[in-house]
Amino acid sequence: MKTVFVTVGTTSFDELIENITSSESVQALKARGYECLVLQVGRGSLLPAADSCPHIRLEAFRFKDSIAEDMKRADLVISHAGAGSCLEALGAGKPLLVVVNDKLMNNHQLELAQQLHLDSHLLYCTCSTLTETLTTMDLSVLQPFLPGRTQNFANFLDKALGVQ
């Protein structure tokens, strides 16, 4: 079963959960052959019921000890732009669509998403452009994130966070 795994990490990102479960986004996923949507909703106020998306199989949970198995089963990972979530998805070798929370102040997440996009490791969008991105995305352009590049990633994070 072709599966999309959505993660917000330990944060609250209700806008992403609302948008990915909208009828427009679900239709875009179905048009691409996805049949199952697994949501990790973190501390958000939304925990959609299994029957809330009638045209796709839906599972939702707040937290697990590990989401590695969910990522492994996924054909596409949609994530907030948290460094840990991005690195875990890229390390699992999964196509990654990052949804940047543009409502955060001093948002370094956008810088991270932009750099990894420039390096062709992921696609990114905002909640307002999510459905359009799901409709038009070309996952074939993505390049693997090679394991030996973790120091480059750490250096980028240090620079983005002003540590260097």
TrEMBL record:
Q: Which GO terms describe its molecular function?
A: N-acetylglucosaminyldiphosphodolichol N-acetylglucosaminyltransferase activity
S-adenosyl-L-methionine: is it a keyword of this entry?
no
GO CC, alphabetical: endoplasmic reticulum
One Pfam family this sequence matches? Glyco_tran_28_C
Which InterPro entries is this protein grouped with?
Alg13-like, Glyco_trans_28_C
Which residues constitute the signal peptide according to the record?
Answer: none
GO aspect biological process, one term: dolichol-linked oligosaccharide biosynthetic process
> EC no.?
2.4.1.141
Locate the Glycosyl transferase family 28 C-terminal domain: which residues?
A: 3-145
Taking the first listed entry, what is the main subcellular location of this protein, grouped into a coarse class?
A: endoplasmic reticulum
Q: Does the keyword Repeat apply?
A: no
Instruction: Please tell me which top-level EC class this enzyme sits in.
Output: transferase
Location in or out of the cell = Endoplasmic reticulum
Q: Which family does it belong to?
A: Belongs to the glycosyltransferase 28 family.
Q: What is this protein called?
A: UDP-N-acetylglucosamine transferase subunit ALG13
What organism does the UniProt record list as the source?
Pleuronectes platessa
